[in-house]
Amino acid sequence: MLQVSRCIPLGKGLANVLLKRASTVELDWDVRQKSRFEANDSLGRHLCSARNSV
To answer: What is the pTM of this model?
Structure first.
C-alpha cells in the first residue's frame, strides 16, 4: 500500500520523463471531499490518503 500525501494537478512542474512513467488515479467528487480514502491507481497499486498535519 502506498500513502498519498500530495496532489500535483496534471503533473505541473514535473519532467516529461516522470509524467510518462506516472500512474493515474480517478476519483469521484464525493470521494475527493473526504479527508481519508482508499483507491487503486492505473497500475493496480492500493493507495490510501494521509491527513495533512502541521
So the answer is: 0.60
d(CA 14, CA 7): 12
Q: Residues 4, 50: contact at Cβ < 8 Å? A: yes
What is the Cα–Cα distance from 46 to 54, expressed in whole angstroms?
Answer: 25
**Cell 500512474, residue located:** 23
Q: What confidence tens digit (pLDDT) does each residue in 20-54 have?
A: 988 888 888 888 888 888 889 999 999 888 765 44
Residue of 43, 46, 47, 45 lying closest to 6 (CA atoms): 47
Report the C-alpha gap between 19 and 51 in whole angstroms. 25
